[in-house]
Amino acid sequence: MGRLLAQRLGYLYLDTGAMYRALAWKALRAGVPLEDAEALTRLAQTSRITLSGDPEHLRVAIDGQEVTEAIRAPEISRAASIIATLEGVRRAIVAAQREMGRDGGVVLEGRDTGTVVFPDADVKFFLDARPEVRARRRWAQERAQGREVSFEETLRETLERDRRDQERSASPLRQAEDAVYLDSSDMSIEQVVERMLEIIRQRLPMKTSANREREARPSE
User: Fold this and answer.
1) Closest to 28 measured CA to CA, from 93, 95, 92, 73
2) Domain that holds residue 142
3) Each residue of 61-120: pLDDT tens digit?
4) How confident is the model at residue 162 (pLDDT cuts 50, 70, 90)?
5) How many domains does the chain have?
6) Helices 74-83/16-30 angle, 10° precision
7) Are 123 and 132 in contact (CB under 8 A)?
8) CA torsion, points 10, 14, 15, 18, in degrees to nearest 10?
9) Residue 128, class by beta-carbon neighbours within 10 Å (0-12 exposed, 13-18 middle, 19+ buried)?
10) What are the tens digits of pLDDT across the range 167-178?
11) If 0-12 CB within 10 Å is exposed, 13-18 middle and 19+ buried, where does residue 68 land?
12) CATH number at residue 125
């Protein structure tokens, strides 16, 4: 939905979660323990994460290494969810996200985007769905990519990620007071995007921004 929205608006699409995934990929490759907050914070502060391409073909790289497909593996998802709870890591990644989006004309996707990264965003949406619906969507994605996982396992991981993100001390998952709540449980992707566009058109004059590569070096 974020990619489609950016495409319709002619905006840059920034999948902020991909940045945590890229860092998790690097941490696992380097053998950095996921419980070592100091080492992971240093890794976040010294890594260069790049997002480039149009919304439908977003490419992710870290320190020049292409990781677009690699960061979607289940073990990377689990590791990213763990390191995203660390305050030092979040501080570094949020600084990079703000750098990428400072010129506007962007659609950002992330669990703390409207509350922490860009609390003054022009329009915010809090997208939700029943846990079993979200798990089934994720399960279908995994199967489409050739990964054999059970629905029950996917549902457990979905609920665990929600719990971890809601209870973390740094940037917990919550709905911003001024965010528009959308329950997509019984809606198609197209229906959600159309509803979002309708709200955006009501609030903002339509503007376009050429897609371009954005990169930033996270900092404290």
Assistant:
1) 73
2) 2-216
3) 999 999 999 998 889 988 998 998 899 999 999 999 888 888 888 899 888 889 988 999
4) confident
5) 1
6) 100
7) no
8) 140
9) middle
10) 877 677 889 999
11) middle
12) 3.40.50.300
